[in-house]
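Before drawing any conclusions, I needed to go through one protein's amino acid sequence and its C-alpha cells, quoted below without any editing.
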Amino acid sequence: MIRILSRDIAIDLGTANTLIYEEGSGIVVNEPSIIAVKYIGQRREPVAYGAEAKVMLGRTPEGVKVVRPVRTGVIADFEAAGMMLKHFLLKTRKHGFSFMKPRAVVGVPSGITEVEKRAIRDALEGEAREVRLIDEAMAAAIGCNLPVTEAAASLIVDIGGGTTDVAVISLKDLVYSVSVRQGGDAMDEAIINMLRRQHHLLIGETTAELVKKTIGCAHPDYDHQEMEVRGRSLTSGAPAAMVIQGGEIRQAIEEVVATVVAAIRQALENTPPELSGDILSVGIALAGGGALLKGLDARISQELNIAVHVAPDPLAAVVEGAGRCMEKYETYKDLLS
C-alpha cells in the first residue's frame, strides 16, 4: 500500500549537477548544483536555482551571491543545500502527485565520514520518510549494466565534478575502492590558472568549463583543436580575446588526468589475480561527466593496456543505478546504508 501511495526517488547530489530519478517516471530533474541567494541582514533568501543560477555566475549585483553548496561530493553549505534540494523536490511533486513522502536513495562518494553522511540525511529531513545511502561507484556500475551480482570483477571509474571514485566490484560488494578529490572542477581551475599564468588572461568558471568541454582533451590526437577565449587582460585591464590550442589545455589538465590514471592503476594493483583476469576480459567502464573528456578513454587504455568503455549516458549512470536499487529493493537492499 505504501508503494502505491508514494513514488520513491533516487538522488545524485553531485558537485556539478543534481539529478533526481522518480519511480515509474525516470529522471525528472537534471540541474546544476547551484543556488543564487540574496543577503537580507543575516538572512539569505533564494533568488534562483540550477541552470538559472548558473547563468548568474560572475554576473551578480551587490548583495546577491551564487553558491555551490556541494564541494568535492559532500555538503559544504548545509543551509543552501537544504534550500536547493527542497526546490528540486518540489519540481518532482509537480511532475506526479503522491499521497506520502517518498523514500530516497542517495549516491555518496566512497570513504565519506559519518558526519558528512549525517549532513546529507539532515538536508533531506522533512522531505523524505526514509533516506538510504549507496556508494556512488556501486550505483554507477549498476547504472552501466555491469554484472555486479555475479562472481566476476567489474571495474568502474566515476569521474564527477569534485571527486573520482574507482571501484572493483564482485558479488554485490566492493573488493577495492579508492576516492580522490579531483574531477571536473579541478580541470576548470587548472585551465583558469594556465591562462592567467601563460597568457595573462583572466577568465571565470563558466568560461573555463566551456573551454574544457569544447577543446579539452587527454590525448594528443585532439591537440589540433582551437577556440577563441575571451576574458580580461591582466596587463591592460581591458577586455581581451585570444585563440587557444587544444594541446595547451591538455597540458594544463595533465596533473588531474594523471591523478585519475594513478587511482585506476592503484585499484588494479590491489585486485586479486583471479579478478584481474576478469577485468582484462571485460575492460574498464567510465561514468560521470569527466568520462566525456575527449580522448580520456584512449589515454587510459594506452597507459594500462586494457579496453575502456564509456557509459551510454555517463552523467546519469549514478542516479539510474540508484533508481534501479530502489525499484528492485529486495535484490539490492544490502548495498544500502
Q: What stands out?
A: Residues 260 and 274 are 24 Å apart (CA to CA).
